[in-house]
Amino acid sequence: MGTIIIYVHDLRSSGVVRDAMMLADHIAGRHDAILVAGHGEGFFREEAERGRYRLVILKDRPSPAASRITAAQPLRRWLRHQPPAVLLSMGNHGHATAYLACRGLGHVRRIYRISNEVTRGDGLRGALRMHWMERLIADAARIAIVGAALRRAPMLARAIGRGQAIEIASGVDGDHARAMAAAPVPHPWLDAEVPVVLGIGRLRPQKNFDLLIEAVGIARAERRLRLVILGDGTGEERSRLEQLAARAGLGEDFLLAGESSNVFAWAARAGAFVLPSRWEGSSVALLEAMAVGVPVIASRLAGDAAQVLDEGRHGLLVGGEDRTELARAILVQLSGYAVRPGDRARAYGLPGAAYLDLVEAVMAEMDGTARAAA
């Protein structure tokens, strides 16, 4: 038995935090699993406190919006008193904290989980991101790459080639999804005749909800639709999206529903699910929607979405930039000609076993190094 530390930036509602909790529960069956959150605020705080793993909160105060590294020093102090361990940094927001906290701590080996596109061509920021990725790879015992689309980054492709990195796609527990989908209807709109188009994700530019709002506005020229977006965001971003929806003519048929502990109950009753993201790794939300059988539409820009949908056999694909194209796809998926996901989500089961193999391989290397030094 060894010590496995799973690090997340905070406990807000996100696929990263959900994955971290599930993985910590899975690992706790064989090792001392500790879920460490840099900042304790978040929708998933109570659920995280009920896990089989140990939960450590480094800072209870809200995390400053402008900084992702304020927990580095508390994490470093805590790590100094831990036994030899493998630290798996789960989300991109937490990697800087883990990287800085572990400087000079030879008893902690790092695994970084990369879940977002790193080759986005946005000038100086893109160049800095690539440089940062090279530093993470140099620091890592292993890299977990979430979805095959990230192979496009040359440094990640090289890391795969030399065995330092491994692809691990997102997954979903289909039985759990269907059980959760049977919960009571979470909103009256889902019992009404007017079909609901559903988007899921934090209210951030990456998720491209502007495109979805505009596309639904265009599609409403053909039939009445409602748009619901599940996800957390700043008050400023909520206000901006509400104003955009008003300009698009959605009126009272637009709802920012906030966070939900049961996205399956929403997805199972929606008319269609849309993933319009500008970039992703391997979208959990897409698999969650597919697991309950709702017709789906995904942007080709959204990581491995085209692979997951098998180039359109299990849902519609759009370019991700044309609102009229997305509007047409929405109308198709709400019609009798909808392309349904079938049982495609079964090919993407929970990845806990793959992560467990990864951390145990690093633990074995640590044991070998310790024996050689002795």
TrEMBL record:
Secretion signal span: none
Ranges in coiled-coil conformation: none
Transmembrane spans: none
Pfam families, sorted: Glyco_trans_1_4
GO-annotated molecular function: glycosyltransferase activity
UniProt keyword terms in alphabetical order: Transferase
Name of the molecule in the record: Glycosyl transferase, group 1
Organism of derivation: Rhizorhabdus wittichii (strain DSM 6014 / CCUG 31198 / JCM 15750 / NBRC 105917 / EY 4224 / RW1) (Sphingomonas wittichii)
